[in-house]
Amino acid sequence: MSQHDQRPLTVACPQCQKKVVWSEKNPYRPFCSERCKLIDLGAWADESHRIAGEPALDETNIDEWLARAERGDER
Ligand SMILES: [Zn+2]
């Protein structure tokens, strides 16, 4: 007998405050999406890991950054 009937735990996305179900199906928890996770990563990366010649990571270039990350050549 396992406790399957627990209500799902929800958390507020640290980036956009949207309610997110904390689930193993969400690899981006506690964020609501990969986008919010990367925005948050970009926020600290901008302070400590800024790459010369690269524009700051922001919402306008997240999609391009994601595409590069998916190809594995983000460095
Ligand atoms: Zn979010």
Written description of the protein model:
The protein has 75 residues and is mainly α. The protein has a single domain, classed as Erythroid Transcription Factor GATA-1, Chain A. The protein is built from 2 helices and 2 strands, in the order ββαα. Strands 1-2 form a two-stranded antiparallel sheet. Strand 1 and strand 2 form a beta hairpin. The mean pLDDT is 78. It binds zinc ion. The site of zinc ion (ZN) has 8 residues, from loops. Zinc ion (ZN) binds next to loops.
Q: In CATH terms, what is the architecture?
A: 2-Layer Sandwich
Fraction in helix:
25-40%
Q: Write down the secondary-structure element order.
A: EEHH
Shape summary: elongated
Outline the biggest β-sheet.
2 strands, antiparallel
The strand line-up of the biggest sheet is 1-2
Number of discrete helical segments? 2
Q: What is the alpha-carbon Rg in Å?
A: 16 Å
Question: In the CATH scheme, what's the topology name?
Answer: Erythroid Transcription Factor GATA-1, Chain A
Bound molecules: zinc ion
Number of domains: 1
Roughly how many Å apart are the termini? 48 Å
Share in β-strands: 5-15%
Average of pLDDT: 78
The counted number of beta strands is 2
**Name of the level-1 CATH class:** Alpha Beta
- The helix-and-strand class reads mainly alpha
Low-confidence parts, pLDDT < 50 over ≥5 residues? none
CATH superfamily: Erythroid Transcription Factor GATA-1, subunit A
